[in-house]
Amino acid sequence: KVDKKLDVIIIGAALVDLPLRPVGKEVFDVVSYPVDGIKMTIGGDAINEATIITRLGHKVGLMSCVGVDLPGWFVMDHCKTNGIDTTYIKQDPTKDTSINVGLVAEDGERTFITNRQGSLWKFCYEDLDMSALKDAKILSFASIFNNPLFDNKALVAVFSKAKKEGMTICADMVMPKVNETLNDIREALSYVDYFFPNFEEASEMTGAVKENEVADILYGCGVKNVVMKIGKRGCYIRNSEGSVIVPAAKGVTAIDTIGAGDNFASGFITALLEGKTLRECAAYANCTAAVSVQYVGATGGVKDRAIVEEMFTRYRKDYGA
Ligand code: ADP
Ligand code: NA
User: What is the pLDDT of residues 289-299, one digit of tens each?
Assistant: First the structure.
């Protein structure tokens, strides 16, 4: 067995977030609108996942695309500071790094203002250096539908190459941006070993309303293991052995669920790299997400491995495992 340079390659978004809070509906009625703070932060599913898996102790290469602009350098700097391999991030002078402005209301409700011309929307198959796939064991496609140019054809091109290299394929999804349906990604899903949608997204995409029906439909597309997130109840797994719910961590007070899904995937992939069983991977994923929801921001909770290990120890005690 050859030693690979990286453990995981993550494909997806890396951008800059500008969360503004609190903002009310009267924002246009005044000339100047003070908020509690304005700070640039790192955002995007793939860079969040890369950050967390790195903190959990594994070597991650991020495959993304940014512009040759200050937000692009901000992304590159975050990766360097956090020990994420940037070899496969394309800095493209023809693209503007995406900046998402988040308007967050007092009650937590939010609207994101995004740039249609930004790197998130313009990221495409041609930006990928496919030779990278020989360097890692796991490929994680951070979110199907997040980068609209990654349609079924592009996904199949990436996934079939990854399979040829013997990689394990993980993927999550977000709600479709341009009215895509399940049929638009059916073939791509047949390559996926572990698929992490949340129930609402998967229900909307499949048109089914019961958990078992949603999971069966996805399993029927050829996904080997459907690992569907069901919020504070944990996750619902469907594979060739049937279905099982792996419960969430107990006694957790969620204050911010932003990025919970990214943390879930990060915990799962970490456990997978360490040879844990499917159930243990799901439990470790639940624990990683449970840490994350107790803190503000996608990467504010899992500061290091110890905080997840502590949660996992408690989890095993609670469930007698
Ligand atoms: P997403 O963030 O993708 O919408 P969910 O809301 O289903 O996904 O949450 C992802 C995961 O976060 C869940 O599968 C669960 O492990 C964990 N989680 C969410 N809310 C709680 C909670 N209140 N207590 C414990 N774990 C939670
Ligand atoms: Na998600």
Answer: 999 999 988 99
Give the pLDDT confidence of 49-65 residue by residue, as tens digits. Answer: 999 999 999 999 999 99
Ligand 1: does its nearest atom lie under 6 Å from the Cβ of 234? yes
Fold for domain 193-321? UDP-N-acetylmuramoyl-L-alanine:D-glutamate ligase (3.40.1190)
pTM reported for the whole predicted model: 0.96
Choose which residue among 144, 198, 299, 312 to substitute to test ligand 1 binding: the one with the highest number of ligand atoms within 8 A of its C-beta.
198
Both tokens of 131, joined, read 């030779």
Q: Which atom of ligand 1 is nearest to the CA of 290?
A: 26
Contact (CB, 8 A) for 185 and 155? yes
Judge if the beta carbon of residue 252 lies within 6 A of ligand 1: yes
Contacts 24+ apart (CB under 8 A), 254-257: 254/293, 254/294, 255/293, 255/294, 255/295, 255/296, 256/293, 256/295, 256/296, 256/297, 256/300, 257/293
245 lines ligand 1 (CB under 6 A): no
